[in-house]
Amino acid sequence: MSKIKKFMYVNRRAPYGTVYALESLEVVLIGAAFDQDVSLAFIGDGVYQLKSDQDSSDSDQKNFSPIYQALGDYDVSKLYVEKESLEERGLTLEELMPLTYEDEDDDWAEKDSIRVVSRDEMAELMDQQDVLFNF
Amino acid sequence: MKFAIQINEGPYQHQATDTAYHFTKSALEKGHEVSRVFFYHDGVYNSSRITTPPQDDRHIVNRWAELAEAHSLDMVVCVAAAQRRGVVDDGEAERNGKDATNIHPAFRISGLGQLIEAAVEADRLMVFGD
Question: What CATH architecture applies to the domain B2-128?
């Protein structure tokens, strides 16, 4: 497989009400082995997936939010979060998990993975993709 | 055009698999290629051979199996999603010590890599679900 495609995983749902968010992460982790140009988008209730201090213990469901922190190690370093979706839910960037990656093109400097983009910018990013996975 | 199909919802509960079926059938009839149909999330339930709908309803599982037979379709059920939901073939039953299997022989259980590979190689990935 020589073609490198632009893959975007679009996360639209809150983390625990359905299994989509967790099973989306499983696709991202497997997909990371395929050396494609990968990014994640978080829109709508999907922005809750990145909320810091998640505690799912009362629901008997596994708190899988630490997996997002490992994405940088899988060379998944572009996490686009829609600004309007944050605002509509009263969330700010500061309330999301601090996620970073080491930039191999910049002497392994530690950089933020999360990039807040406007709805218009998100539409443009989606337009540039070869493959969109919706979860 | 070469299509890969992803189905994220179970049968009867949701229209996604019906729409995916009609899309796949039409694409094949018009001479397009469908390189793989990948069943994920509750979509894995589309592969249960013990599915028994009322006689006056469509049989979603058998319908997929017949389409696969006619066009040599590669229908893949995600192993991780299948394990969670109790969709089992002989290999999985043996590995996990289960006393039964339920997958229709027209489907095969494999990994998520099959979905990524299909998306890389197809001209279009079509995702059906909410």
Answer: 3-Layer(aba) Sandwich (3.40)
